[in-house]
Write a structure and sequence with these properties.
Number of strands: 22
Radius of gyration: 17 Å
Largest sheet: 7 strands, mixed
CATH architecture: Sandwich
Shape: globular
Number of domains: 1
CATH topology: Jelly Rolls
Strand order of the largest sheet: 1-20-17-22-15-13-14
Helix content: under 10%
CATH superfamily: Jelly Rolls
Order of helices and strands: EEEEEEEEEEEEEEEEEEEEEE
Structural class: mainly beta
CATH class: Mainly Beta
Distance between the termini: 22 Å
């Protein structure tokens, strides 16, 4: 029997530090909700708005797969592995923190905000050698299609992670319908509506709503508005 969770946008945890306005789908920082600790291996789903010229100073991570997807503006990244890059809408960034890394993230634009999704997943291998990966995606492939942007396989399109997870992103016209079949038995799907309105397996969702479902083989997505943008995260439900 299928299981479902729905996280409406206005029920997310919030933080306002002035320079950073954040929304937390799952427990993070000062937001703690025992009913929202994770969705399978998906541990963090933060929707961050970073003020012009501001950002996160150098801080550490370990044993986590960290994915950043810019939605607006740019983010400048520097890390202890020697990487120094800027990511923008249409890019995806992934770090395997492994045995430990340090990095900083700043909005390099002095006049515009940056809005990013930062997603953390538990890895299926601990204490790996830290690594950094960044790709610029061909967004044309996402129009009325679910474009794969992350997978466990180095050879696939997008970035790769130490986890049996697949991320896909699509931009849909109004009334477009698409089915998504899960890649792996035992996985569930968490869908995040970046923009617009959609109905997934009969459940109506709006901008920034989240929808999790497991014990199923496929989901059906109906776009209820033009330029509906959706992120599909196909992830293991077991933390082992």
């Amino acid at each position: 029997m299928e299981n479902i969770v729905i996280h409406k946008a206005n029920t997310r945890g919030k933080s306002d530090l002035g320079w950073l306005k954040a929304n937390f789908t799952f427990s993070f920082a000062n937001y703690h909700n025992p009913e929202r600790m994770n969705f399978g291996v998906l541990r963090v789903m933060n929707d961050d708005i970073i003020a012009a010229g501001k950002g996160f100073g150098t801080h550490p991570h370990d044993n986590m797969e960290i994915i950043t997807i810019p939605l607006e503006g740019a983010l400048e990244h520097k890390d202890s592995m020697g990487n120094g890059t800027v990511i923008r809408y249409g890019d995806i960034q992934c770090m395997s923190a492994g045995t430990g890394i340090q990095h900083s993230e700043f909005n390099p634009d002095k006049n515009k905000i940056a809005n990013t999704l930062q997603i953390w997943m538990f890895p299926n291998k601990r204490n790996v050698t830290p690594r950094y990966d960044q790709k610029t995606l061909n967004k044309d492939k996402a129009i009325n299609n679910l474009q794969q942007i992350l997978s466990p396989n180095k050879e696939d399109e997008g970035v790769w992670v130490h986890q049996d997870a697949w991320f896909l992103q699509g931009i849909f016209e109004k009334d477009f319908i698409i089915d998504y079949f899960l890649k792996r038995k035992g996985n569930g799907v968490y869908v995040f509506v970046i923009q617009g309105d959609a109905t997934i397996n009969g459940h109506a969702l709006k901008k920034r709503d989240g929808f999790g479902i497991w014990n199923i083989e496929k989901i059906t997505i109906l776009s209820n508005s033009s330029n509906t943008e959706i992120l599909v995260m196909d992830v293991p439900m077991s933390l082992s």
